[in-house]
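Changelog-adjacent note: as of this version, every example in the card shows the full chain rather than a window. The one below runs 521 residues end to end.
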Amino acid sequence: MTGAVSGTAHAVYEQPSVALLARGLRKAYGATVALENADISLRSGVVHALLGENGAGKSTLVRILTGAVRSDSGTITLHGQPYAPATLIEARAQGVATAFQELSLVPNLTVAQNLLLPAMPRGPLGLVSSRRVIDAGAEILVRHGLERIDPSAQVGMLPLAERQRIEIVRAIENAGQMLILDEPTAALAETDWLFERIRLTTAKGVAVLYISHRLAEVREICTEATVLRNGRSIASVGLAQASDDDIFEMMVGRRVDQQARDRAAPTASADAARVSVSSLSGHGLNDISFDLRPGEILGLAALEGQGQRGLFRMLAGLEHPDKGQIAVDGTTAQLSSPRGALKAGSGIAYLPEERKTEGILAGLSAATNIILPVMPSASTAALISQQAEQSAARPAGQKVEMSPRYLGFAIGDLSGGNQQKALVARTLATGAKTLLLYDPTRGVDVGTKQSIYAAIRAFAAGGGSVLFYSSELPEVVQLADRCMVLYGGRLFRTFEGKAIAEQTLVAAMLGHGSNEGALDR
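Full-length structure tokens:
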């Protein structure tokens, strides 16, 4: 491994094709050092991955490169010239644009307006022309294969995946020198469209910095990678010379067990169903029926837009079904709100799809976010101290291996992985016996994933019931006792135990494949 990370990498960096070179970057927030002596070098026309656990310093490095924050020390050059943008607009003016994981779109503006900000087409009188804005937006969408999206549609009304694509397109349109993609597939079930955009971009000589926790896609689109750990550059490697185990070890400082668990002994009990769904329709679903049993982890696999979001939102009380019934602990339930779902039977708790907009309250502490659903029981005379909050949040935080020192931090200041741990801890803190987890490890690192997996398994082992959707099939294979596949808004097939395999799931998600190992529904 050492031969792949030293001389060879620096020999590449000394070539004249270097687009961006950063050396010795440091950034501290008070006593917390986010980056310490971090280095990275990007070449024109090359896709370079930035890898590391949540909290490793990736987000801080991206903020520096995009002008959102200034480094305390270190140097950056862009094509040999000093580069130190003070704002995102300054970075964009120099040809550096970013598609952020936590989307930066303005939800109450149209698609076209978001694509063209801040420079809108104007008419003869110098006023912004709505017609020209729409036409220009439509041209951009067509250019990127997204003509199906209405340029006059309000962005906030679009599905998350479409908003992710709009974010990516806007960045590509402004990336004359360097494109930064921060977890670009976190909300995308398929990569073909994105990878085609990236290849067209690098063909123009643009350097691409690609940040993802999905190593399979990193290997498909990237040729080089830099690994950060605890704010420091551990290595820069050619991906052809580094195995997955090598990369995991560089990221976390130890080998990580990636093996799927033994499925020989089913964990689900033969007890009566905890949640029963009968002939449920609406919000993209058509006549869905299934049971979720105590002690069971039930996975859901589907391509984008097959009705999975509607299913979770109906079970969480956020949407009303057009028809059908939901029963909790044998009693028909009218789920009109998340609070109502939590009170139904032994309780249903929901982990939402988007942690930034649907999950966290960024200005409040991690402890406050964790105990929000149970705040009245943790308070005295409607008052609660910080110490009491942290004491109440600590047991749930421990279940997801969240360090107690983060409980007092504003959750918006924590890494994405720690934010997600806090949200999973919140569902556990409710005391609900059923968890609805929508993409529970979206955009988190391999170490955080293992912590969340362990918490899910422990919950099920204690008699809890889990329904989860994941955009990552290896996660479904590793976690699920049973797996339902949605296709065309219907329950297409259900697999159990060792029959849950990636190839089989992919075939079913596309509407075909063998029935071997499937349970007809």
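Structural remarks: The chain has 20 helices and 21 strands.
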